[in-house]
Amino acid sequence: MLSKGIIPVIVVFGPTAVGKTDFLLNLSKISEIINIDSLQVYKHMDIGTAKPDAETISKVKHHLIDFLDPNEEFNTGDFVHEADRLCADIFSRGKIPVISGGNAFFLINFIKGLPTTPKGNSIVRKKVEEELKKEGIEKLSCKLEKIDPDYFSKISKNDSYRITRALEIYYSTGKTVSYFKIPEKPRECYDFLFIGFIREKEELHERINKRVDLMFENGLYDEFLKLRKMGYGSSSPGMSGIGYKEFFELDKNEQGSEQLDLDDIKELVKKNTRQYAKRQITFFKKIDNVMWENPDNSSIVLHKVGQFLQQYGQVL
Length: 316
What we know:
Blueprint: E1 7-13, H1 20-24, E2 31-36, H2 54-59, E3 62-63, H3 76-92, E4 96-101, H4 104-112, H5 122-135, H6 137-147, H7 149-152, H8 160-173, E5 190-197, H9 201-217, H10 220-229, H11 262-284, E6 290-293, H12 298-310
Parallel strand pairs: 1-4, 1-5, 2-3, 2-4, 5-6
């Protein structure tokens, strides 16, 4: 047993479609899952976010899934604070918290702690909000790219919350978000076991393409239309994610732009997802002391997990 007060946390991560969900079922007896995903937090968005199905959730409890409306913000600070609370609660009940998902930005901030950024400035925030209304997210996105290209490369180009917050910080302090670095070392309140899942590029791309095909077969476009009817548009945080934002390209058809159909949108979703997976891998590779493995070799990973659990009197 390690020092009193330290919470053991198994961290399972990897690019989208790599096969994390199936592996987590092996940990169902001893764990509860804390989801690292900025889109699965939203209600009514099931197909495009690849949420675990009801059978999976019935076998192992998942947290931070399906609890916000798509027009609500869920940022990095929200995730870290909620994950800290849940880790303490899960471990107090004799279970091992498992952090799992594909949002590298959330994960790295959870592991090392949040950077000390300035508090919000209501006057500057109002100025940025007025800019957003007047100029639109595309112009603000371009502005942030020039000001802070490093931070801009890590976020969605339609992420209105992060873009406006970054501009607010810059206008208030003259410093970029990248100036406020996250700590170098993992937080000492946790004992981490890092498991990174990876596949060969061609295999991962094939899995991504098949997943997107299945999403469309299962009614992804109908899900998007339902969300539109509910009043959620391109400025809603949930609708800025891959698998939803691409459908807004169809609106341009009515404005005389290049004509796109659903097959074009499907290919665009595949392309954006493959590019996102590449970015995920780049970020995940920055994490130290990771056991990298193909998820098909689950027995090797489970042996490592078993050794880790022995310190806490747990067995798989």
